[in-house]
Amino acid sequence: MTGQGNGQSVQKDGSAGVSRIALLGPPGAGKGTQASRLADRLGVPHISTGDLLRQVSEAGTPLGLQARPYMDAGELVPDQLVDELIRERVRRPDADSGFVLDGVPRTLQQAEMLDAAFSTLGRPLQRVVLLEVPPAQIVERTARRRALAHRPDDRADIVANRLRVYHAESTPLTEHYRSRGLLAPINGMGTADEVASRIEEAFP
Ligand code: ADP
User: In what order do the strands lie in the sheet with 127-132?
Assistant: First the structure.
């Protein structure tokens, strides 16, 4: 029994490792990069709601068409759509060994929604990484990303809206996980390699 199939992953040293993780942090904190690196290292899928929503929106599925106007405005898409998206995604077999969530939960309601969905599956979240980056740094990073202009919602006013939405929602969300002993704050300043090493120390 390797632990495959019961939702546990077994690390190289034989200890049962943490394999169901969510990454929280403001837009531009480097969540996507770090979530992808962490997922690769743990051998589990990287599940980004932003990426999934962009895919369904480009594909023009009913869910994608409903989500699109919210995304274009930098507003949160309705919880029920996110719930549907995540439930479908974590049921795929590649998520049996765990997953790294990126971009979800974004609100306390979403956290409660995930708690319900994952407890039905018998696979609760094990750790929640909070990438901490000061607001001034965020503004600088998103401005740099905007210069590369690969996403329509990286326009200045829309980024500002995404940041406002983040700050309004983040305190109750982080408290939810802090009070359950799941929160792992990580300093998100510095290069991607530096941040990745800090995460690696926390999740060997
Ligand atoms: P960022 O974190 O930089 O804002 P994302 O790629 O995570 O970018 O998200 C892009 C957009 O997709 C958000 O502005 C929002 O409209 C939508 N979105 C992504 N994840 C969620 C979620 N969990 N709940 C609601 N909306 C979401």
Answer: 46-48, 99-102, 20-24, 127-132, 183-187
Q: Annotated catalytic residue: which of 146, 151, 155, 178?
A: 151
Counting ligand 1 atoms within 8 A of each CB, the residue from 153, 164, 170, 173 with the most, and so the one to mutate, is 153
Active site residue 106: yes
Residue from 66, 121, 133, 68 nearest 93 by CA = 121
Residue 146 Cα to ligand 1 midpoint, Å, equals 16
Overall residue count recorded for the chain in this entry: 204
Q: Quote the DSSP letter at residue 76.
A: P
Along the 204 residues of the chain, how does pLDDT read in single tens digits? 344 444 444 444 333 488 999 999 988 888 999 999 999 999 999 999 999 999 999 999 999 999 999 999 988 999 999 999 999 999 999 999 999 999 999 999 999 999 999 998 899 999 999 999 987 888 788 777 767 766 777 777 887 888 888 888 889 999 999 999 999 999 999 999 999 999 999 888
Residue 41 is among the residues annotated as catalytic for this protein: no
Pocket test for ligand 1, best of 51, 66, 77 (most atoms within 8 A of CB): 77
Among the atoms of ligand 1, which is closest to the Cα of residue 49? 20
Longest dimension (CA), the chain: 52
pTM exceeding 0.90? no
